[in-house]
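OP here, attaching both records as promised.
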Amino acid sequence: MDELETRFEGLEKQISEMTTHQDNLNRTFKQLIEVQQVLMFAEVVRNRKSLLLDDDDDSMLLAEENRFIKFGSLNGVIARDRFAAFEKILFRATRGNLYMKYDEIKTPVRDPQTGVLTQKNVFVIFFQGERLENKIRKICDSFSAHIYPCPETPQERGSLMEQVNNKLTELKMIIDRGWDQRSSLLRDVARQLPVWTEKVTREKSIYHTMNFFNYDLGRRCLIAEGWCPIKCIDKVQKALRDGRERSGALIPSVLNIVPTTDTPPTHFETNNWTRGFQSIVNSYGTARYREVNPAVFTIVTFPFEFGVMFGDVGHGLILLLVASLLIYMERYWEGKKINEMIEMVYSGRYTIFLMALFSVYIGGLYNELFALPMNFGSNWAYSNLPPYNTFHPVDDNWTYPFGVDPVWKGATNELTFYNSLKMKTSVTIGVIQMSLGLVLHLFNGIYFKQYYDIFFEFIPRMLFLLCTFGYLVAMIFVKWNTDYRHDVYASHNAPVLLNELIYMFLPGNPNVDYPLYPTQKLVQPFLVIIALVSIPTMMLPKPIILLADDKAQKLGYPSVWGLIFGYGYKQVVEVHGDSDDDLLEDDEAHSSKNIQAPSGGHGHGHGGEFDFGEAMVHQGLETIEFVLGCVSHTASYLRLWALSLAHS
């Protein structure tokens, strides 16, 4: 690294000097170009018969005793867009006591100071007196006009012109040669830059990693502590051996498994197909160590719900083609820098591929191809008997083979039918997915032996959800399976399920004249009671029992769950302490030994004094969040219905 640093400093100094020298030469070259234009214009002006005669007036400008008065002159170049104002200011400042000639330079020239290609004018100003000269020079400076000396005699001007031409030729050769040298040097740097970048990056990574090490003064070595998956221990040891052999180190690196009571960080192995879904889940939160990974289920639920919102065979095939193209381009784009917007879509190519597949599948269920129906043999036909312009079923025992019958497209009640179908489907999907989340909570409680979470969180939550919105889903399926054409009740008496859910919580249950099923009047009050009882069950028992456990543990008595399962608190602590000794020894052994104290997994008695008030507030907030979340989440799932209707 020191050798590279010395080399970089030398290259930087060399390139900086070459650039500065090149800029000075370019500035001189541009100034000589302007001097050349000034000399050429001065030669034209001074070759006239009389410098003091106007073009349209043969009288002398000024004469005294038949002798001409000698005038001073200034020659220069100014930007063409500033010349009009420059001329007016000169005339007003000198009160007309000057004589100026100018001409346009045919080709644009580069400004010596800015280097910008600019249209310019060359001028010569004749004046009398030193005071007037100073005033004109100040005006020229304010307009960024460049003043150049010009000899009075033709011989001197010719000599200077020859010197300028020779100097321009010489400078052009030097500039070209310097450009070639600098380009050659920069090409060499460009060829070696990837190698240098790799070396510097590796060196920086090494030092960055070593900054996490602790230095042992006694043994004079670096010690690092970290987490590693159990199955990667052999790979790490092999990497350490390979590194020692390649570096030629005499002292080998030692890997020791250190017992710890800290909770390991969460690590999920992903591949190209699962990485996108894992990122989506991680954006909301990361599961704790050894908890169920919800991203596994998201691989199916996320693209499926996308298909519900944007189900169309034609649009899905277009999206599938785009995703397939991105997957094909992986062999060319992987690891390379691409456009930022394309990179964002490219990183989710596998997610988009699955979303497209489900869009095609759900589009088939909706029977939509670019919002048009696909008819594979409808069971409905136009009626040839009165009333005309109506449909009748061809076969009462036959249904459309897959998805929605195309006869609904264009029907007078098309919107009513699709509204009902998609809204009820969205609610059903939402309740099923929320129930799945509660089941994952049950799995975590069983694995970690958090019995309080099972009995006072999972069970009352599941009962509340099923007795409210789960009951709504059950009514949806009951209504779907009821044929109101042949029922004793007329079709217009079919109950509105949303009203049924609302009436369920009202006193007296007013909508019982036309029940959905025979025992509805008895079942609904029972479900309401269970739902209401579940709310305090979620809120109160767990903090109270945790408080009792904390007091019992301080006195050395068994906890509540210790009495139930036949072991005391001290035995539980011993098992919990032994679990960390074999943290990286065996995966199955760790699964069985890493048992939290049977307090519900909140670690009271281990991480500090138990705070009953804090536990009550925490449990109360979780209860309120769950109850309100059931309502808000169910309403949010109606977006599936809304976007599906908007898309079709």
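Record two, same layout:
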Amino acid sequence: KQWYQRRVRGKHRVSFFVVMIKLFVSLVLCGLVASSSTDQRPNIIYILSDDLGHGDVGFTGGRIKTPNLNKLAHEGVQLLQHYVQPICSPTRGTLMSGRYPIHTGLQHWVIHPGEPWGLPLDETTIPEVLREYNYTTHAVGKWHLGMHTWSYTPLHRGFDTFFGYYLGAQNYDTHVRGGGYDLRDDYWDEEGRFVDDVRYDLKGQYSTELYSQRVVDFLSEVKSEDPPFFLYLAYQAVHDPHMVPERYIQQYTSHIHDPKEKVFAGMVSAMDEGVGNITAALRAAGLDNNTVIVFSSDNGANVGCVSHVTASNYPYRGGKRSIYEGGMRSPSFIWSPALLKPYQNNAMIHVSDWLPTFWGLASKQGALQPNHPITTKPLDGVNQWNTIQHNTPSARQEILLNIDPYPLGCGHQVPNYGIRWRQWKLILGSGGPPNGWYPAPGQLAAETDTRECGGDKPQSYIELYNIDKDPYEHFNVSHLYPHVVKKLTHKLLAYNATAVPPGNKPVDPAANPSHFNNTWMPWLEEEEKGGEGGRVPYTYSWVQQEVNEMPDPCYTGKRFQEPEGYWDYDDFWSEYLSLIG
């Protein structure tokens, strides 16, 4: 029963004297003392699924049973054009910082085990902002934004508590990846000291259920007089390895026949059950009328470079790792019964928008001042609360989809540049793979294998789509609208001029969990906050570790060599600009 209190009090303890001084100042300035029970600023819960596709939930018409997500989506505002990044760490970094990956060095691939890099320490995060408005902040589930020093881990990035794992993927039951255990309970003790409690005792318990129950336990401890909270729930589901307790599979004996598809569907259902338990706990605690819940995925479903397709982005094109709509348009909604009426919102919203949007909610749209001045780098996100609450036009007209000049494992093998501006979407180089349209499992031939490992060369290095008329990207109209291609190319060039180098670094052998009782632990001394200083050019020396851990024909030494005819970064732009003038 003391889970919530024992972790939060240690970090926020203040003396009786300080409390009385603050109380006196409030009486003088305001003529009254408002108890925290009158604080009507909403609690905020962000639920992030992993590799969930547009066709994997019921509220978008998918075949998998998600009654709890469906209910929240239909009671809330469905965000029909909510964009994320095409892969994991970039989305998480963009969510936390409110900045595009090109501005944080997260534009290329993900943070692999043993790589000494992460979201730069001089980036201001959502929890750091909200704590300045007296929110308590809590993270549950997957982190994947760096762990080589303690400074990159959640409690040193603004969270009061963390229960979950630092890496990007692991076994759902053993909580092991690459020979190392990674499930921990991090908190500040009564003396304000950081505690990293590795939970070896939870080995054998299914992570989706663990994370859902932790949130339920947290909500059962929240009192009406407590300050508002921000809770970031980043499920491991439905990332591979695909595994789930048998009881979640039994409901799919009639309309899903393939065993692998049943397992995947069961994983989605386990997450949906957890969301249902969380909303029930909210209601039981009387918090539902003062809470905002946002739900999204970190990228599209993984339909490329797999031996058997079990997920779906259909009817959208592409999937995880691609900048086609299936890779970046996430099944998303925002729910708040007291603040929002149900409807479908078609405005362009990007994952970078949540930091300024939550900032607006915490500050009562600027009416409240933070405890200390908040310094951020220039934000790429915008406050979308008015757009969401009143269904007004989006506060943005464009989204930078990504700029990545390097080849990507199981992804693009020529430069990958993309931008959405109003109804137009321009892709330069290659938008995928995956490049195609993958019908929902069950409509595909059995054992559909998409391990093309890069696929064929793009049919065109210039793709322009009118997303309003052609959201599924069937018709490349670049030849019809050269002036639009030119305009958006120059927008991409302007963004490119502001980009920092990718932060990727090779695996450090010192990170091997065998050095730490077969447990993944930070292994380097702390570093100074220095922005991009000290970053090194990206190399591919981490490939061998991935080969050992995740055998797949797409993970080979040859896979990460520059393909024949690969365009040099500078040559790409000079050749392209010579074509359009």
